[in-house]
Amino acid sequence: MAERERYDAVVVGAGPNGLAAAITMAQAGKSVALFEANGCAGGGVCSAEVTLPGFVHDLCSSVYPLAIGSPFFRSLPLAQHGLEWIHPPAALAHPFDDGTALLVERSVEETASRLGDDEGAYRKLMAPLAAEWESLTIDILAPPRWPRRPLQLARFGWSAIQPARRFAEKTFSGGRTQALFAGLAAHSMLPLEYWGSAAFGLVLGVTAHAVGWPIVRGGAQKLADALTAYLRSLGGEIFLHHPVESLAELPSSRVVLCDLTPRQLIQIARHRLSRNYREKLQKFRYGMGAFKIDWALSAAVPWRAAECRQAATVHLSASLAEIALSERMAWAGFQTNRPFVLLAQPSLFDESRAPAGKHTLWAYCHVPNGSVFDMTDKIETQIERFAPGFRDTILARCVSSPVELERRNANLVGGDINGGAPILSQLFLRPTRRLYATSSPGLYLCSSSTPPGGGVHGMCGYFAARKALRDRF
Ligand SMILES: Cc1cc2nc3c(=O)[nH]c(=O)nc-3n(C[C@H](O)[C@H](O)[C@H](O)COP(=O)(O)OP(=O)(O)OC[C@H]3O[C@@H](n4cnc5c(N)ncnc54)[C@H](O)[C@@H]3O)c2cc1C
Questions:
Q1: Mean pLDDT of all residues in the chain?
Q2: Ligand 1 pocket, 17 CB below 6 A?
Q3: What value does the mean pLDDT take over residues 118-128?
Q4: How does DSSP assign 336-358, residue by residue?
Q5: Closest C-alpha residue for ligand 1 atom 17
Q6: Structure pTM?
Q7: Roughly how many angstroms between the first and final C-alpha of the chain, as a whole number?
């Protein structure tokens, strides 16, 4: 039995970062046991039939520019363990009220050519970043450290640090291009007037050109399954249905890596943490929540703009001002009438997700942390605005409020999907200046509450495990 054995490393939580930490340990020849509260590994990378039989829904993440671009995941033989990426023709569609849409395609040129007066500005911004992305990513998807490419990073950082709204208004003259950039930047889950919010727009924009925004054939769970299978092939052990309530219940090990946010770390490790460190963790700020809906549909979404059928991801909001208002309201604790909706339609490109001729649909909007507002009608009205007749295609829906998201995964505190708000003070130094280390020797954090933050890339887990290996072995 695991309880009597001693491991080199124990990992708590099997999200992509917990799995990455466990794999890094196992690759270094260390014995690893991973304990997960849920009945399957994956955390924010999971799928299930939650509406009708035969409809496979991604319950959390669905689109993976950061996973396919992750230096760590790319180094793993995940295809041998069943992972297959699907690249839709375009990364992103952004429709407007006049029935037209902008597309972000793999080619910077093609994308820029549809932007009218902003063609040159878009090309000038994105072309060099896309060309340098592979080397830039080594510094961007990493903890704060002396950069490998200081000049490139400084150029990127100068734009990235700016408030997204100001950056979009300064860089682009057309309202449509400004709205496109605002939609990308709103993934930050920050008001677009906040410093650092442009970084998210730039990173997501450039990944569309450099690596694409793929989905996983068969559903997100297949990515988690591939990581799990690879970990097991290295000798790692995984214990499911095992919510850890206290570190005392874990088998003895040289290091413990927690794929948890600060709040849960305090709960399970209270007595091992110094008072000073605990107080710092208590000050960590969580961000907006998500309100998510999965639908089973009788037909594809009847978009007014045909271009929307070329991308798995569609952003719904007509202007920069509308997106900025939606994000500002949610941040300030208010319900918004026209939420910025982030939508994915994977079954258009992966027939295994739904019965023949039928479709799945995934969408969420940002709401105040822990909000109990029901956004179902507002989200569906926003889709109907760009796709009249959408409501007639709905066969069933599964609604996940922030409370429900947190019930399924304790890391989604108040529905915050990024493991903590990426405000400037928490963008690089998260959750404290110690980053992965805690006040307790041998105890580490490895979740998206550590650098480089939210998204499915596994880099938090990888860097936490490297630090533990350096410190303790
Ligand atoms: C609705 C939604 C949509 C998203 N869309 C995208 C997207 O399209 N692309 C993208 O890149 N990212 C997306 N994300 C974000 C992404 O899922 C997260 O950033 C990522 O999963 C964080 O990984 P993690 O390993 O740090 O934590 P998680 O994936 O949250 O994993 C934490 C794990 O720890 C387990 N756990 C918690 N407490 C305990 C305990 N006490 N004992 C044992 N186990 C415990 C949980 O059950 C969970 O399995 C989305 C998230 C959500 C919720």
A1: 96
A2: yes
A3: 97
A4: -SS--EEEE-GGGT-GGGSSTT-
A5: 44
A6: 0.97
A7: 25
Residue with CA at minimum distance from ligand 1 atom 37: 410
Q: Are 424 and 430 in contact (CB under 8 A)?
A: no
Summarize pLDDT for 14-48 with one digit per residue, the tens.
999 999 999 999 999 999 999 999 999 999 999 99
Give the pLDDT band of residue 3 (cuts 50, 70, 90): very low
List the structure tokens of 413: 């505190």
Q: Is the pLDDT of residue 4 over 80?
A: no
Give dist(CA 128, CA 304) in Å, integer.
34
Ligand 1 centroid distance, CA of 271 (Å): 26
CA–CA–CA angle 238, 467, 46 (5° rounding): 35
How many angstroms does the Cα of residue 420 sit away from the middle of ligand 1? 12
Atom of ligand 1 nearest to the CA of 446: 26
Q: Which ligand 1 atom sits closest to the C-alpha of 243? A: 42
Q: What is the mean pLDDT of residues 59-67?
A: 98
Q: Is 37 in the pocket of ligand 1 (CB under 6 A)?
A: yes
Query: Distance of CA 397 to CAs 207, 220, 293, 376, Å?
Result: 31, 19, 7, 10
Six token digits for residue 345: 């339609």
In the prediction, which pLDDT does 350 show? 98
What is the spatial distance between Cα 304 and Cα 352, in angstroms, rounded to a whole number? 26
Rounded Cα gap, residues 323 and 55, in angstroms: 31
* Mean pLDDT across 257-281: 97
CA of 171 to the centre of ligand 1 (A): 34
Output the CA torsion sign for 78, 225, 41, 90: positive
CA distance 406 to 414: 6
The 3-state secondary structure of 151-176 reads HHHHHHHHHHCCCHHHHHHHHCCCHH
DSSP secondary structure letter of residue 284: P
Closest CA to 469 of 15, 11, 5, 24: 24
The residue whose CA has the least distance to atom 18 of ligand 1 is 455
pLDDT for residue 153: 87
304, two tokens: 């007014």
pLDDT for the residue numbered 150: 87
What is the distance in A from the centroid of ligand 1 to the CA of 22?
A: 16
- 312 C-beta closer than 6 A to ligand 1: no
Residue 5 in this model has a pLDDT that exceeds 80? no
With a 6 Å cutoff on the Cβ, whether 47 touches ligand 1 is no
